[in-house]
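Sample entry (1014 residues):
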Amino acid sequence: MIPILSHQENIKQDTFAFLKALNESDYSGEIAKSYADRLAVATDNSVYQCLPQAVIFPKSTQDIVTICKLAQLEEFRAIRFSPRGGGTGTNGQSLTNDIVLDLSRFMNNILELNEAEGWVRVQTGVVKDQLNEYLRPYGLFFSPELSTSNRATIGGMISCDASGQGSLVYGKTSDHVLALQSVLVDGSVLDSQPLTAVDLIEQVERQDTVGAIYRQVIETCDSKQEQIEKGFPKLNRFLTGYDLKHVYDAQTGTVDLTRILCGAEGSLAFITEAKLHIQKIPTYRTLFNVKYDSFQSALQNAPFLVQANALSVETIDSKVLNLAKQDIVWHSVSSLITDVPGRVVDGLNIVEFVEEDAEIQAAKVEALAAQLDALIADKKAGVIAYQICDDLADINRIYGMRKKAVGLLGNTAGSAKPVAFAEDTCVPPENLAAYITEFRQLLDDHYLHYGMFGHVDAGVLHVRPALDMCDPEQEKMMRRISDKVVALTAKYKGLMWGEHGKGFRSEYGPEFFGEELFTELRKIKGAFDPNNRVNPGKICTPIESSDQLVSVDAVKRGFYDRQIPVKVRESFSEALDCNGNGLCFNYDTTSPMCPSVKLSSDRVHSPKGRAGLMREWLRQLANNDIDVLQLESDLFAGKNASVFKKFTNTLAKRRGEYDFSHEVMEAMQGCLACKACTSQCPIQVDVPTFRARFMHLYHGRYLRPLKDYFVAYVEQYAPLMGRMPDFFNFFMKMKLTASLTEKYVGMVDIPLLSSPTLKASLHKQDITEFDLAKLQALPMIERESYVLIVQDPFTTYYDADVVRDLVLTVKKLGYKPVILPFKPNGKAQHIKGFLDKFAKTTKNTAEFLNKMAELNIPMLGADPAMVLCYRDEYKHALGEQRGEFNVQQFQEWLLPRLKGKAKASKDKQFFLFGHCTEKTAEPTSSGDWAKIFTHFGGQLSDVAVGCCGMAGTFGHDAGKLADSKAIYSLSWEAEIAKRERAACLATGYSCRSQVKRIEGQTLKHPVQALLEIL
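Predicted structure, serialized as tokens:
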């Protein structure tokens, strides 16, 4: 039996008092102090883990002023803070054991745009892609590019002075920051921008913290100008922490404190607003994908490509390429990066040209193409082929693959995973090939596997050695390699942190800067934050402070994960493999990735958040000597707690008895089980799978709500009710029935049964009845004209017209449809965690479908969620016992059977609104439908939308009704409103149900529109 699980550690008394006082002040934001909330921000995209005391979500600059001024009271002087944006840092920049100030939830507004002067003013919680989506209609963009652009905030970009692809032309974030508004730890507001003459004198003469900062910065830059010039490498990506090189211009007498704040990693102040330089989107863009016989060839050839006046040169090694080929992302680029017959592509350089003038662009492209042709003909430089791409959508697809490469490196087999700790080293580009040779030798000497990609034009290469951080000895190896990489980058006149900041690598700062310059950094830190209360330990500490810098030896996720038995870690790899890359925080509302976090902006309700809770839950079980695998086995064997025991446990829960399991359960209940995470996440974190396992275990201790049974047993009662649909619909239409169902069952908007039934609607059609003996007696050649229709409870009993039209379409195409007897699929049981029941359902149904598969007749299903359940959940539940049966979707079956020439195109235009699970599990689905419609003279376009919000029965849960409708409004509502409803199609039963509920009109299934065309 699972025991009651507690907090790992309680909130400190002074923090608790501070939060209470803050709540009683005029502070308008939110405060989160549950264990789940704290765990959600205890990690980032690094290997480290720090549990904060609380998380504060301010709504305005004034809220942060209130926080800081309250913290000046004597009883709160020990409280410290760390700002946080997207949480995408690879070195623990925003991690803390103190209080997190998260600006991403509320401070994410775009405040002002000035097209004429080319600037935009934003709150720093704005996500980069959010900003560029806003700017796109104006033909403008914020240029610094980075792989995490769909979840990285402007504040995070400023704090780490982020840059990426195209930095030779576009520079770093700091090159585009015109002004900042920040709050100092004493509550003062600092407005910074380049100042000279009277304006500067006015600031210098202030007798407050702002004046002290200006005086210290000028003194440091004046007195140490020579050391700064000599000590700072001439690198495009050079990050110092505090940018002394650019903060002061001695010739003009200009001081720009934004340069100190950019790259300071939140260690000086809380940056709340930014005025940013923006520029025109290039008119012409062309991409070369240059293929090489080795990665070394790609590296050595990069300077040649840079000389062609390219915007950027990005490189990818064969390991990353092969990982991409195994990922869902590859289907989008496979035609753009084709194999070379008879050759192995072991390296790839992606070269981009941008121009406003078409002739100049064409000349650049032609020149490089001619040079590459010559290299290929002469068999030089390792170039074996290239492809040119100038379609914007295709260019974005290639960069989408390149962006995902960071996460793909984490999706390797085995316990050793590529780890970010020395992955953004930077050396002068001319030294890169030699440097990498030594770096690779260093890793090879330690027998480590690794993948490489990066920005060779800037001398930055991302290298992630594979380490098992649950192994204490390999954790020590991380330290040894870090020390050697620091020395190696120094040898080649570079540095260890070329792109991703210092974070827990701050301990190497003194070694790099030298004592004299590092002392000046400490003086500046002291001027901003004399008591070391803002992101303490990062970059440097004040001279007056005895606090130590953070270290690469800090506590890591692996310290906690290794407390979980190896067999449990392997069994729950869908959660334990999460490396925190944060792709599940994707801002784009048209992306299917995790609708619950898009709606709530709550990191707990994300795949990463849920995975973190799951691994902590498993750790606590292990520390309570609970064998979770044995517990699961016992539950499957029927060894369950008594109903009385569950009842008393549930009463204790209602009385407020704390159990960490309740926090985990709350997070799991917010999941729509859409399964987008299983393919959209590069690590393939699979929340629905471990969610179902958790719910099964949880309800071994606590009673289930009635609605769980209502959902899970739909395949038992729907066929019975379906025999008399009019009788049951009479009662279902009553307001009293709906009211009682909502009050006592917790379900709303229960759909009506189909009337007439499927059987009645096909009564006058010449449809072959199912007769196994007759089908078995058919010669094999005759079986090729038959198709077996696999029923599911939702379309058969609640949307029978779809199944009827599927049958009629199959017949219209010249085949003989046969409807198989209804067999439960079990999807609803899985969603609600009835895994013991699901196991029996899958076994029985798989046996039946395998028997049908012996007929060698294709089997089709109408609903994508049900069909894909046979491929995914059945595989998890049954393993090899699943058998070889294959239930196809209509388009999968028909596409390879299309014959003859396509018919002339008709005016009739249709629009496909895809089902989340289908789009992510079978990404070619919409394209397959489009090809089919084109063949028969129709036109079908895919509509970019996220989740509809129904997600099976999620939208029928009374407690989730508001969330369900809000998710619909994120993307579906506007796209549906743009089009005639009759032209809108949806494959998913739940999607059609949601549209019917909200819009009052049912969408057709694509097969119904196809039947019209036929």
